Amino acid sequence: MVALLFQRIGLLRLAVATLAFTSTLTVRVNGISTHFWMLRDQIRDWSIALGPFPDLPLVGPATHVGGYTIGPAFYWILWAIRVTVGPWFENLPHAGGIGQAVLQSGADALLLTAIWRRTESLGIALAAIVLVATAGYDLCLSALVWNPTMGTALAKAATALVLLGWHRGSASRAALTAAVAWSAVHAYTGAIFVTVGVFTACLADPLARRDWRLAKRNAAVIVVAVALLQLPYLAHQVSNRFGDSAMGAVSGSVGRILSGSDRPEISKSVAGYAGAFEFIEVSPWRAPIATWILLACGGILAFRYRRDPSLLAITLVPQVAAIIGYSMFLDDLDHYYYLSLMPAAVLTIVLTATAVPSPRVVRVLGLALFIGALALVPARVRFAATMHRMPEYGVLVDASRKIKNQGQPMRAIRSDFALPATADPEFLYGVLGGRIDRRSPWEATIGADGSVAYRRVEGS
User: Fold this and answer.
1) Phi/psi at 151 (nearest 5 deg)?
2) Which among 71, 86, 223, 349 has the fewest CB atoms less than 10 Å away?
3) Would 271 be classed as within a structural domain?
């Protein structure tokens, strides 16, 4: 009887996690084949993923503040997406967006399972995932070929592994937790604060229980995992005779502060985090009080779980570390820098419900939170639809397919309608197998309705 009960609970959790995965994935990829955001970064990174694995870079994508991320995990995973998902969609770049959405929804399902098991409240777990997955700004970016969103997915997965207690299990499980957390930094440097929280959990948890042996083992596992994942970066530096700086802008800011020429900008960092939290999690509404609610919930959580260092490490530590860390960054702070921190912020709020001593009241509060989160979804989805979309993408795909089917190389392909400055109307034609030949006598112009006009170049 007991075994049957546990089996049914396991099947229920699997069913709920599967439902969470499919529903969040559906919302993320809805209409992606017609409005995929195909700008410079997406064209660059998908072009790299279309190549053979040995040709992938040994470092991550270039950053807008100079340098690049410190490892190739983003390109490795994107290449795997291209190989597995790409053929189903003619290797077009929106296949990469679908693959990254699969990663995001998989991490959501894992996090839901972890929260449910940790709190024994399905309502709280569902509320957390709905709030995380349907945040408007996060939602509009989640199905995109872009390294910050992959860093967010990996950071979310590492958080879930800590909640599941994997760092307390075998050395291989602890190693996997550390590797996923550090791979998030490979994908996006801003995920470092979540990674700090995960590493803190791996060490603080056994130290709090005075399990010195486990603490030493986890420390060694973290060091080995990071060292192994940095071997590609080391190879890159050796090939460049250690003359290539990864994060020049960041090191420059830190250097100026350490030299005394500048001071940490704490107030700017606090304002940056508050603004990002309100924009990502609260929009399309305006509620400056939300930040104060987050702060109050943080205080309650710190008291409620003062004897649970691993939970505090993955909820409060990343947020505090981000405020401290970004105070050392003397450039402007964009909202997307904080995407990987939003699961920690949401957990800080929803887990406050568990501070109530009555399990029955906790279940009621969890259900209320879930219903409230569902009520926010329609407006958040509508808000997401207003950002970071390229409605011309579907037109370019259809027209590029028509041009390719002509079997005639083109000298150039243009559009008679405006495109974002860094979009390229020739890129999709090349992905589909067409050939650009600057000596060809033919040029093609794509119309806004998807029609194609061909023109023979004079004198060719």
Assistant:
1) -60, -40
2) 223
3) no
Amino acid at 145: V
Cβ-proximal residues to 317 (8 Å cutoff; 6+ apart), any chain: 196, 197, 200
The number of residues in the chain equals 460
User: Which segments of 46-163 are extended strands (E)?
Assistant: none
* pLDDT confidence of residue 326: 94
Secondary structure of residue 387 in the 3-state scheme: coil
429 and 361 in one domain? no
- Name the domain count of the chain: 2
**Domain co-membership, 366 together with 439:** no
Q: Is residue 39 part of a domain?
A: yes
| Cα–Cα dist 140/288, whole Å | 22
CA geometry: angle 69, 72, 73, nearest 5 deg: 105
SS3 372: helix
Mean pLDDT of each 10-residue bin along the chain, 460 residues long? 52 91 97 96 97 95 80 97 98 98 98 95 96 96 96 98 92 96 96 98 92 93 97 91 67 70 86 96 91 96 94 97 92 93 98 89 93 97 95 96 94 94 95 94 94 84
Angle ∠(116,129,299) on CA atoms, nearest 5:
75
User: 436 has which bridge partners?
Assistant: 410
Q: Which residue segment(s) compose the domain that 190 sits in?
A: 11-261+357-384
In a domain? residue 75: yes
Structure tokens at 199: 């590493």
Angle at 207 between CA 204 and CA 211, to 5 degrees: 135
Q: Which residues contact 245 (CB under 8 A, 6 or more apart)?
A: 66, 67, 251
- Whether residue 449 sits in one domain with residue 362: no
Residue 436 in tokens = 């650009």
Any domain includes 410: yes
240 shares its domain with 174: yes
Which residue, among 137, 139, 220, 229, has the nearest Cα to 181 in the 3D structure? Answer: 229
Largest Cα–Cα distance of the chain, in whole Å? 86
Position 250 scores a pLDDT of: 65
Q: Which residues of 332-351 are buried (b: 16+ CB within 10 A; e: fewer)?
A: ebeebbbbbbbbbbbbbbbb
Helix, strand, or coil (residue 60): coil
